[in-house]
């Protein structure tokens, strides 16, 4: 890419450093969209030995670009996001992608189509990891920042996406165990009952998703 189009694209992507998500970091500040995308790409890279048959470089590219639309709209939590919100974000994103020079315009448009359709193993892995990274970040945050419904939500979120792979399902179950441990510790520390203790128990090993 020539210097000026490259700089223009980077300036737009920089907005994601200031776009915050519905979750705190372990240090007690809001996580940015850029940080989520970076760690999601790192997660994909670290799992390439579990999926040797997949094009993991494509998965990493999906992870890096998946939330670029939020440079235009900001982040809307998935439990609040409507179909209209998704359509608006997608339209703004694709309008911008069409302005990029080749081969990036065509390559990115094709990647977004693949990510939306979720028909390829690469797209399914990207989406499962995207859901999972969000739950991991919630586990790392102070549970006093969780809304009440998140005590059940974080037990179940992403199981439907992880179900395509025994590897991903095992990882999702491990994250679920971390969630349960954090909730128990929080309840003991704050002398409060376990909120929604049974609320998603049926989803522990099932492929369900309520977010």
Describe this structure in words.
The protein is mainly alpha-helical. It has one domain: Hypothetical protein af1432 (Orthogonal Bundle), CATH 1.10.3210. It is 59% helix and 4% strand. It has 10 helices and 2 strands; from the N terminus they run H-E-E-H-H-H-H-H-H-H-H-H. Helix 2 (33-46) runs antiparallel to helix 3 and helix 3 crosses helix 7. The longest helix has 25 residues, at 166-190. Residues 196-211 have low confidence and may be disordered.
What are its keywords?
Hypothetical protein af1432; mainly alpha; 211 residues; two-stranded antiparallel ribbon
Order of helices and strands: HEEHHHHHHHHH
CATH topology: Hypothetical protein af1432
Which CATH architecture?
A: Orthogonal Bundle
The CATH homologous superfamily name equals: Hypothetical protein af1432
Q: For the record, what CATH class applies?
A: Mainly Alpha
Major sheet strand order: 1-2
Q: Are there runs of 5+ residues with pLDDT below 50, and where?
A: 196-211
Number of helices: 10
> What integer is the average pLDDT?
92
Number of domains: 1
Biggest sheet architecture? 2 strands, antiparallel
Derived from helix and strand composition plus strand pairing, the structural class reads mainly alpha
Q: What general outline do the C-alpha atoms trace?
A: globular
Question: Rg from C-alpha positions?
Answer: 18 Å
How many E-type strands?
Answer: 2
Q: What share of the residues does DSSP label as strand, in percent?
A: under 5%
Helix content: 55-70%
Report the end-to-end length measured between terminal Cα atoms.
38 Å
């Amino acid at each position: 890419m020539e210097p000026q189009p490259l700089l223009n694209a980077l300036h737009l992507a920089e907005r994601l450093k200031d776009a915050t998500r519905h979750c705190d970091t372990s240090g007690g500040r809001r996580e940015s969209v850029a940080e989520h995308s970076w760690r999601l790409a790192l997660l994909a890279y670290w799992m390439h030995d579990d999926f040797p048959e997949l094009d993991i470089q494509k998965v990493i590219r999906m992870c890096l670009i998946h939330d670029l639309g939020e440079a235009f709209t900001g982040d809307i939590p998935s439990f609040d996001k409507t179909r209209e919100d998704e359509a608006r974000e997608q339209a703004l994103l694709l309008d911008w992608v069409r302005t990029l020079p080749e081969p990036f315009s065509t390559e990115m448009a094709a990647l977004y189509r693949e990510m939306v359709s979720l028909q390829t193993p690469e797209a399914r892995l990207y989406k499962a990891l995207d859901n999972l990274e969000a739950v991991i970040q919630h586990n790392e945050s102070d549970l006093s920042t969780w809304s009440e419904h998140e005590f059940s939500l974080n037990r179940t979120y992403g199981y439907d996406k992880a179900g395509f792979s025994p590897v991903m399902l095992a990882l999702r179950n491990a994250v679920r165990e971390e969630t349960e441990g954090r909730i128990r510790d929080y309840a003991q520390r704050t002398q409060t009952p376990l909120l929604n203790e049974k609320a998603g128990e049926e989803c522990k090993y099932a492929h369900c998703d309520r977010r």
